[in-house]
């Protein structure tokens, strides 16, 4: 069957996704920080600082996105990301890295709610919002494939000069600004202003409290937040485990990252199909449980860490668009970016909890024991949440294919 060409606005979204990759430096990032004389605990503290900034900044920046426009908020994010990545190339002290982590965190907050809201509302305006999971999943696939390609150069660039991966990534992320300028704003905004003038910060707080404190959003936000927090904390130990436990040469670390990023790209492409086949609830519960069990067992079977890397990356890229689509389906359009930012705030709270735990366990025992502690923690919380209020019921709408 002949594949249809994606609509123009979807193609631009895919191109934007391709420019916002960290592949040039991500495979060597932890090694780079360790070479700058940071400990695992200090790295965890930086990530906790980032989570703290997200907690403080998510609601204000989500509200800003609901006022100035989704695309404008995404533009601010791209500028901040590029600036922080380029700054990593010259930072030397813990204090300097702390400043850059703060900029990075604000970049995340300006994008988290706005990016998802822009895609959902653009599909609703021009195509079909029921295709959200499919389009976002395929956009994530584009991002992962380009990341896989750039990751192949991470090791060689790092060997020549540790600053080169960051320079390359900074330039690529700056290119996302050019792409965003060509993308349309959603119909919620007229000439950069909200079409409704009644939504204020006073309206936002009770709206978010009402929506996030009751079913169906309450349990899925907590469940996903714990999972994303565990994965983000565990990601810091992939490189030390790969090099120090599995004995993968540093020169091959980029190829390893490219490999499991390619697998996660395929998984992301079929995120909508996975949701259709398993239902929203079982796609979320099943994939997260398998990943957590793999983390827990890695300490007893070290070679299991290798497939666990693949499970971590793939489950993350599939679960994120499914959860985001579920939240969008239950959001009110005017405060959509604020709601999605509020969910990101909850995720950041769990990052703030799990990252120091992982850093301390890795320093005192080993990175593999950090994997086990994080995976076991998720399983305990997952059982409790499922007993109290099973997360993510099946959506009523039927997804249509938008290629």
Folded structure, characterized:
- With 403 residues, this protein is mostly helical.
- It has one domain: MFS general substrate transporter like domains (Growth Hormone, Chain: A, Up-down Bundle).
- The protein is built from 17 helices and two strands.
- A two-stranded antiparallel sheet has the order 1-2.
- Strand 1 and strand 2 form a beta hairpin.
- Helix 9 crosses helix 16.
- The chain is globular.
- The C terminus is likely disordered.
Per DSSP, what share of the residues sits in E-state strands of 2 or more residues? under 5%
Number of domains: 1
Cα shape: globular
In terms of quaternary structure, the protein is single chain
Q: Which series of helices and strands comes N to C? A: HHHHHHHHEEHHHHHHHHH
Report the CATH superfamily.
MFS general substrate transporter like domains
Span from first to last CA?
13 Å
Rg value: 20 Å
Can you summarize the main beta sheet? 2 strands, antiparallel
The largest beta-sheet arranges its strands as: 1-2
Alpha-beta content class: mainly alpha
**Strands, count:** 2
CATH topology: Growth Hormone, Chain: A
Going by CATH, the architecture would be: Up-down Bundle
Top-tier CATH class: Mainly Alpha
* Unreliable stretches covering 5 or more consecutive residues: 194-203, 395-403
Number of helices: 17
- Measured as a percent range, the helix fraction is over 70%
Overall mean pLDDT score?
A: 80
Describe the structure using short key phrases.
75% helix; Growth Hormone, Chain: A; 403 residues; disordered C terminus
């Amino acid at each position: 069957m002949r594949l249809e060409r994606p609509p123009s606005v979807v193609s631009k979204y895919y191109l934007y996704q391709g420019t916002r990759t960290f592949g040039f430096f991500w495979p060597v990032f932890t090694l780079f920080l360790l070479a700058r004389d940071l400990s695992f605990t200090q790295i965890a503290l930086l990530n906790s600082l980032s989570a703290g900034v997200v907690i403080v900044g998510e609601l204000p920046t989500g509200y800003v996105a609901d006022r100035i426009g989704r695309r404008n908020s995404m533009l601010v994010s791209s500028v901040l990301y590029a600036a922080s990545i380029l700054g990593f190339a010259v930072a030397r002290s813990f204090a300097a890295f702390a400043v850059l982590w703060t900029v990075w965190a604000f970049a995340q907050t300006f994008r988290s709610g706005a990016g998802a809201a822009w895609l959902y509302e653009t599909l609703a305006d021009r195509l079909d919002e029921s295709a959200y999971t499919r389009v976002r999943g395929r956009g994530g696939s584009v991002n992962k494939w380009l990341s896989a390609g750039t990751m192949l150069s991470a090791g060689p660039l790092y060997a020549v000069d540790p600053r080169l991966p960051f320079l390359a990534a900074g330039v690529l992320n700056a290119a996302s600004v050019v792409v965003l300028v060509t993308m349309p704003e959603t119909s919620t905004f007229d000439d950069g202003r909200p079409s409704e003038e009644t939504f204020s910060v006073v309206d936002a707080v009770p709206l978010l409290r009402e929506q996030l404190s009751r079913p169906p959003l309450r349990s899925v936000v907590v469940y996903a937040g714990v999972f994303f927090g565990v994965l983000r904390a565990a990601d810091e130990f992939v490189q030390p485990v790969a090099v120090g436990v599995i004995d993968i040469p540093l020169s091959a670390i980029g190829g390893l990252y490219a490999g499991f990023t390619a697998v996660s790209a395929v998984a992301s492409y079929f995120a909508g199909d996975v949701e259709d086949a398993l239902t929203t609830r079982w796609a979320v519960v099943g994939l997260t449980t398998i990943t957590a069990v793999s983390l827990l067992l890695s300490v007893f079977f070290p070679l299991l860490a290798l497939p666990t890397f693949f499970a971590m990356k793939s489950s993350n890229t599939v679960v994120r668009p499914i959860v985001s689509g579920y939240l969008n389906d239950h959001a009110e359009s005017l405060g959509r970016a604020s709601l999605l930012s509020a969910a990101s705030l909850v995720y950041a709270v769990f990052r703030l909890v799990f990252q120091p735990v992982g850093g301390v366990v890795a320093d005192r025992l080993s990175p593999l024991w950090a994997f086990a502690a994080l995976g076991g923690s998720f399983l305990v919380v997952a059982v409790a949440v499922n007993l109290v209020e099973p997360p993510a019921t099946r959506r009523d709408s039927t997804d249509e294919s938008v290629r």
